[in-house]
Structures are given as structure tokens and as C-alpha cells.
Design goal:
There is one protein chain. Helices cover 29% and strands 23% of the residues. By secondary structure, it is α/β, with parallel strands linked by helices. The chain has a six-stranded mixed sheet. The radius of gyration is 14 Å and the shape is globular. 28% of the residues are buried. The mean pLDDT is 96.
């Protein structure tokens, strides 16, 4: 039985299959379903858990080289929210692109973790280093 670290067996399984330059998506509650990739849905209620909570839980167990977010995130959220994401992704090359382009990355991901986050455009694609 796992007693520390990531306790979710589906997320552990997903992370164990991510290799160099593979990608993983952490998505908000409204992100479209992608039937072609494995989805681990951990949404419970609004904002439980959040994308940031999942990201912070993954960081010690997942070496991230690059990250992408939708440029609409910058326009749709206040400075405090933007700063929280910048802090959570510190040390990682972060790029913003139009949401339409961002979604084109999703089918190539190893998997997607869906959260209950209600933050607009809080989705992030993470590339393994």
C-alpha cells in the first residue's frame, strides 16, 4: 500500500509510461474529452482538485522540460492567478499559444489528468525532460 507521495494508482501508472519528450496534459473541468488518449479523471467538485494542486503534486515525481498553456489564459485571469501558475512552473520553459493550437498538442500526449478546476484556460501540456 502506498503511504506517501502520489497515492493515485492510475496517475502513478500514467507517469511510469512517460518517457523523454513525451507529454502529459493537466486539464480543467471543462476541457473536451479525448477518446484517443488515456484520461484519469480526478474531478470531485468545483476546484477540487485544481490544476495547480495536481501540478505541485507531480513536480517531485516528474521531470518537466517544457510546458505550454493557451494564450487566452493570460487575458482571462487576474495577476494573482497568473503569478501562481508562473511560480508553479518556475524553472520550466513555458510557452503560450492560441487555444486552438494548444489543443492540437493533446492527441499526442501519453495521457490527460482531468481536474475540477474552474480557472479559465488553466490547462497545461507538460513535456518530460
Amino acid at each position: 500500500m502506498l503511504k506517501t507521495g502520489l497515492l493515485n494508482p492510475q496517475i502513478n501508472s500514467l507517469l511510469s509510461r512517460v518517457r523523454h519528450t513525451n507529454t502529459l496534459v493537466i486539464a480543467d473541468r471543462g476541457f473536451p474529452f479525448w477518446p484517443t488518449i488515456e484520461t484519469v479523471d480526478i474531478s470531485l467538485v468545483d476546484d477540487v482538485p485544481t490544476v495547480l494542486a495536481v501540478l505541485n503534486a507531480l513536480r517531485p515525481n516528474f521531470q518537466i522540460g517544457k510546458a505550454w498553456m493557451a494564450s487566452e489564459f493570460l487575458k482571462s485571469n487576474n495577476a494573482r492567478t497568473r503569478a501562481a501558475f508562473t511560480k508553479a512552473l518556475s524553472g520550466i520553459k513555458l510557452s503560450y499559444e492560441p487555444h486552438v493550437e494548444f489543443k492540437r498538442r493533446v492527441p499526442n500526449a501519453i495521457g490527460l489528468i482531468r481536474t475540477g478546476d474552474t480557472t479559465q484556460y488553466a490547462n497545461v501540456v507538460l513535456e518530460s525532460a
